[in-house]
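Morning run. Coffee first, then this:
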Amino acid sequence: MTRFVHILSNVTYGGGEQVLYNLCREKPDDNFLFLLRKSNQVPLLNNINNHSPFKSRDVYTKKDYFFTIIYFLVLLVNLKLNKKKFDCFVLHGFPCQYILFLLDLLFPKKKKLMIYHQIKHYHKGIKSIIRFIEVFLLFISSAKIGAPSHRSIYSLKNYIPKFMWKKFSFFLFKNCFTPIIENNKSKILFNEINLLNSKRPYILTVARFEDFKGQIRLVKFIERNYLLKNKLNFIFIGDGKNFQDCLKFKEEKNLSNIFLIGSKPRNSLFNVYKNCLGVFIASYEEAFGVAIVEAQSFKKPVFVFEPSLKINRNIHILDEDKKSYNIEDFKKMISWYEIPEEEKFVYSTSDTFISLEKQIKF
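And here it is:
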């Protein structure tokens, strides 16, 4: 049996990280996770090392990057000296890719995987130097490169010069997570939200308030579509660097049908999902899109602005610039179309906790 040491750079409690925590919870003997940034949002598990002297942040500075790399190096030295028994490194996110080559020097007999949880973008101009450095460091390492969806793998291939594709080994990292179940916390949260929104029908949004998640453009879309006011509410769950900007916009425009709830534990969202009209994902892009998976596990329609997020008939593309949407338009889109068995792998939790060993041919 293969034993994996996972190293995660920053903790924002995004979808990819939730998948990783659940993998450690369900397969504790095979997976050990080291966090380069400490977070109080991480489950207390014996196989998760959450003792970094540096805290996770929504926005990184150059100083933060420097200290993260230093701690990464210290961690590698400790693993070498302590002679921890494991078979494979699994690195997740920036800045791991820039230190990957050191693993071949310090741990030449260990297998290595590098997983990108975000869409890769093609650097232009002077920033292309960063791309060439990253590709070179990946090239001289022995690591296989993974991503959680075919579109994210495609973005990786676009990032790497085409003539080098055969020099790399790509694999699809199968996301694995448990479905949300009903509990007292979920009932209490739903009752609190129900009192706030006057028991009107509502659209739910669950995501970190980051630039690429698109909450700012969503609140502007709601403001433009004045026919929705007093008819349809929008519940935002999450926090992050753009939370205050969205709150300020809501207050300035007196948008009484927008409710910014803040961050809530994933396991308290059952009733909020169950009773919503649908789920809005305003992201500009998603490497995988756990919110899509969760919405469809509740058989809820998903509303998006980006065509790249449409994976089946239950995802509806809305015109971001349109100003005349009303509640009837949304009600016409809430019918649920059963998804063929061959397509269910995109969103289903039926293959939960497939081990990395089974996913990858070493």
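The chain has twelve helices and 13 strands. Good start to the day.
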